[in-house]
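=== RUN LOG ===
request id: a7f3
mode: sequence -> structure
chains: 1
length: 197
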Amino acid sequence: MATFVIFDLEFTTWPGALEQGWSAGGQLREIVQIGALRLDGDLGVVEEYEALVRPVVNPVLSPYFTGLTGIGQDEVDRAGLAPAEALGDFLGFCKGQTVLSYGNDMVVLGENLGWVRARGEEHRNSFLDAAFLNVRPWLNALAPATAAANVGSLWKVLGLPRPDSGQEHSALFDCHSFAAALRHLRAGGAELPVGCP
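=== RESULT ===
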């Protein structure tokens, strides 16, 4: 059965960081949560992936990040994986797949892989074993109302039922919002990007 992956990341942030491009000293986009869905040709969910990651440079989450995502410090301290382990696991989930994001999350993924290597840590699996693609421009062109929407609010902007569990800015919830948008566009006759069944 042909499948593809959609994914979303939550990464460290502070008030104004987005507007400033994370340019303030020490403000790195360290991944804290990874969510992904493996979808089949009918856009049904075949498998879910979710992991918490312990940031290294900024191990203490900002209150802004926690308020935005609902992810608390104790949860990350208790269940978070080391970055090399989490990224290696996620790349294994993506191996041999077309991997879609709504935005340039693959850039953030690449930054984090670079930091892992710079610290001399090894990770399993390779970034090059999957075909990463930002489909936000494609989706926005087909549904212009989504142009200002973040991935977790796509369902709302398109007037679709709310995904079952979680909240906006939780990586897995955002993936379900993304999947709902893809189903909506497919139902309207849109062809998914190359590499998707």
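=== NOTES ===
The chain is about 35% helix and 20% strand.
Residues 98 and 131 are 5 Å apart (CA to CA).
=== END ===
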